[in-house]
């Protein structure tokens, strides 16, 4: 199969695609466009972004029939070359989309490449018709300046590219692998220092898994002028979008970019190779239900940051501040009372990437990371660690890309801990169950001399009344145990506040009606912000945890 891609009018954001297929005599061929993309488990229905699909031979146009919202079929009349021509609209500049303008062409083939019947294993060549000055950042095999090759369809959809005359390229080496850093956008930080940090977390992660089976790995960065934060993992690359680019002059913001980079590199093993069975291979035509979100994103979020502590990039207090943010996010929602992380993983297709209705679900990232922390420290009490577990997952399921189920992960954890009863109890309560994680986190962290304390800065409305407001005084969250929950509605705007002896009187606007509401003061606290502090001497467990 051979793709030719043209950017006739870059600012129209339509690109022209010609896909040539060799067909046999009277063959029925189906063309399936992706409905979602790897790394984001929700339907994107990319077919809404293509227009005018035409099949032709050198002599004529061939009839084409649409059989579902994103699937077409045609019949060849005789053996020969058939060309599928279509246009794709590239207007989504995030880590998983496509973008066209006068400065670049950015493609994720998981958005726009057809899966062609009976040709899953066929080699695919790609010719980009772009100005000479354009460089191309991609993990696809380069045949000539703008010509590339993928071994098969799965590789093509897992190999994004950025083409631009403005790309900046840097490399570093670890073992036999060359790591490429490609930047599209302005660099406002010290690149030498950044590369040192990347090298240190790369070394640490490779040591954890023992090997990194790739000759090259590419970090593709879009540094954008507006606020943005997104990363997507691939087999031999990652795309990371971050903005505003100037903010990266600030160390705290740069730490966010480094954190997402460490997270995405960890996905090289966990998800891209240690892959839930439901995702092997990627069938982008329909939902792939997975229950392994706690492993795929929870473990990655936890260890991605942990390796920055272990590599010496974060200080302990910096790491604890990040961890405290996760704890605060966890305690602000009561979704954990209603849905386990396993069920929230399954439901990603429903509302995994939006706020959704209140207190319905948990985040596989946030709660997943906190579960991973507790699991890691529990394993350390049993002479093992989450790192040992993931190395075993790598050997057993990752290297040969066998696919695993949540039960396989639990089995590996149990084997590493050599304590089936404790591990069974942990999984039952926190992974399959809906138990409050906060007391467990508090108790677990004490074992490494880290203490959960009430933060000095509390929001009085959140703490005393269980009401969280946004900047425009609109109510965005209500504590279900608070009296406020019984008289206020999400979306009400507070216009006046009058503190009384035993209550607070609120003037609110609800839709277009104004109301006065009195909320009694109680003797309990509702939303509380926590901080973590490190106290007391190092102990052996803690030394092992951060080494
Ligand atoms: Zn991730």
From TrEMBL:
Which InterPro entries does this UniProt record tie to the protein? Peptidase_M4/M1_CTD_sf, Peptidase_M61, Peptidase_M61_catalytic, Peptidase_M61_N
Question: What Pfam families does the database record attribute to this sequence?
Answer: Peptidase_M61, Peptidase_M61_N
User: Residues in domain Peptidase M61 catalytic?
Assistant: 257-371
Q: Which organism is it from?
A: Lunatimonas lonarensis
Q: Gene3D superfamilies recorded for this chain?
A: 2.60.40.3650, Neutral Protease Domain 2
Q: What is this protein called?
A: Protease
Residues of the Peptidase M61 N-terminal domain: 3-164
